[in-house]
Write a structure and sequence with these properties.
alpha/beta; Rossmann fold; GMP Synthetase, Chain A, domain 3; Histidine-containing Protein, Chain: A; five-stranded parallel β-sheet; 18 helices
Length: about 600
Amino acid sequence: MRTSVIRTQADLRSIESQPYSRFMPFGGVLQALEHTASEHSDRRALTFIEMPAPEASVQSWTYAELLGQVRRAARAFAALVPFDTPRVAFLLPPIPQAYITLLAAEAVGVACPINYLLGPAHIAELINAANANIVVALGPSSELDIWSKIPGLQDQCPGLRYCIAVKACDTGALDFDTLLQAQTDDPILIPITDPNALAALFHTGGTTGRPKLVQHTQRNQLHAAWGAACMYGLDEKDVILNGFPLFHVAGAFVYGLSVLLAGGEVVLPTLLGLRNADFMANYWSHVERHRVTILATVPTVISAVLALPRTQADLSSVRCLLTGGSPLPNKLADAFEAKYGIPVRSILGMTECGGVIAVEPMAMSRLPGSVGLPLPYTSVTLDPNGLGDSTNEGMLRIRGPNVSPGYTDPKNNLGTFEEGWLLTGDIGHIDESGRLFVTARAKDLIIRSGHNIDPIIIEDALMKHPDVLMAAAVGAPDEYAGELPVAYVVLREGCETTADDVDAFGQQTIAERPAFPKAIFVVDELPMTAIGKVFKPELRAQAIRWALESRLAKHALSDRVDMRIQPTSKGVSVSMFAEDDATVAAISEIMAPLSLNYQLSTRGSR
């Protein structure tokens, strides 16, 4: 297939004037991959950088080789449960075996990618909720410990029949490579080609105690990936550097399947992905070596790359940086473009729609606050019951082939899936050119490195402490993670419990490690609304003040700047007034890596 390059709203209308089958002629993901492999059999599909040194050897798979491995894995999964549908949960970092597992499971059954950073109890809960009968996980590794969470799963998960290890070593488990070698790579006789068939279950952030699995159909994934490919203008010459794990829709579809459908190459940066500090130190050398054309990021990755020393590497192959997962501060994008001369483009997506709602097309100019145009055949309107400052603003809602049929438990659909629409939880507006703008977040989430954390899992855990009367968690800005959770607690009268005591308790009771609070503050009371709910914007303002004050103090700038940090209807307003231009420059350098919109000027310019 060739992408229909989208530059304007008129291009969208032109595509939509044709039958949908011309846009996406395939009903199943494997069927589409087979077509791509037939056109580009000898081209590289996946490249795995095993060691972070730029000169180290790498492993590559052509499209023919990738398709063969997917077919082998699909047969292996089906053979393990011959009288049942393979429902394959997997806990794998961004390595080729993760792509093979995802694509193979969806070819003959259902995939369920799971965040391997979760605790064992949470993992077991998700496996049970997904009715998974097979689990694939990374074997023992000195770099990334996943396997220690696996042996006890079969006792906790009655429906789980087989555990498969990638690089099994001496675990005694079934070995992934051995299973595949025992199978043929002939075409699958009866692959799934029904576009409405269930392809995968993706869990959303913050599901402890209440598993929340999003259903993906084959069409959902194909539409999201191919729509993104058209927005990016992808072709077989593109090479994307994608270090995102496949339990996140960005790694799987936004930056993964989109490229594979276009015949391009996906480069996977080490077992730890973009969390590998040694790889990041050599980031530009790897970009030069692999002639990368597209950088796949979130704002925190942009900050990390921006902090690197100026490079002598040849970056002429790079045509764009893509970012999503959390709002893109305009100052961060400006700084990156000024330093490297590489254009930055935003993406808006959700797990509930295959990862993509809108993309700022590469062929369009970047506009601050814009997340681009909706995908073809995707309607975006303002929810008439949504929040907003004016009649021109409200909660964005979408409908289209990328929208999931809902959660596995229909009770969870209320407030998100309503009358055929997906309510995004983002407050924004749409301009005359069809561009979407996101101005605030209605849903109460903490977004850490693109991963959604529901504050409830922090608050519920801390509330189990006998001395905690109330608890509330919000996100504080961070250079690398984007946001880190912090918590505010009110203690029962007369208690001598300290913040350290509550923190130690939380370490034992919060099941999701990324949700551990970076700091816990004991306060006399929590800010409340007129109807008795915790007023989170005020707590976010406090968290931002704490984060900024600690950074200014570290650089001995506290006495040289005034801050005004106030909650607003659109979030939090941050204004800073420095003594002089030199101080403004110093503060700008501190603020640049933070995904935070702010105003900074000298005191005399108030």
